[in-house]
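Tokens for O-methyltransferase. Go.
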Amino acid sequence: MNQDLWTSVDRFLTDTLVHPDQALDEAVRVNADAGLPAIDVAPNQGKFLHLLARIHKAKRILEVGTLGGYSTIWLARALPPDGTLITLELNPTHASVAAANIKRAGLSSLVDLRVGSALESLANLHAQKAAPFDLIFLDADKPNNPSYLEWAIKLSRPGTVIIGDNVIRDGAILDPNSSDPGVSGTRTFLERLGNHPRLDATALQTVGSKGYDGFAIAIVNESE
């Protein structure tokens, strides 16, 4: 088993199950031309997020970490015409690229792109008494994932689905003494998912064109 094999399998799955898409393909190209890091979800992962949102019949989605808007497009396409996706991005350059990609995909009316610190944006949403979200996708800086999780729970309702990306980190999460803040943040995030009284959660390892990683998924239960 090696990276070449994983990438080839991902390509087969994408070619067989996902199919070409002008807006998404253009977003990938534009993101690369703009020098954004190539850390978008893979096409088959994007469609997985899309299907989860559709299965859950999500009308309000929160995304923490927009990058160039690739996953945003997948998620927004799962919304009904009266749905809303709020996506948070720290980097103004990334946000500008994402806004153009979202507009090109015809989704600007559904997407509210907010630029600035995600922790500040989340606090503002809570202070504004934002309606709870049906699905929350956490895919920003990993050291802050424990804090993002706490805000996600505050912005949720019973039944809200919370998804955390990149939780395996090539297996580095096994090291409790890691000096990598992304690893320690991810370990704390997973521990809180497992210990929080309002959450039922699990995590899965994945391999593919993006390497060896995984995601966590949780559902919010009733308050005690």
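The radius of gyration is 17 Å.
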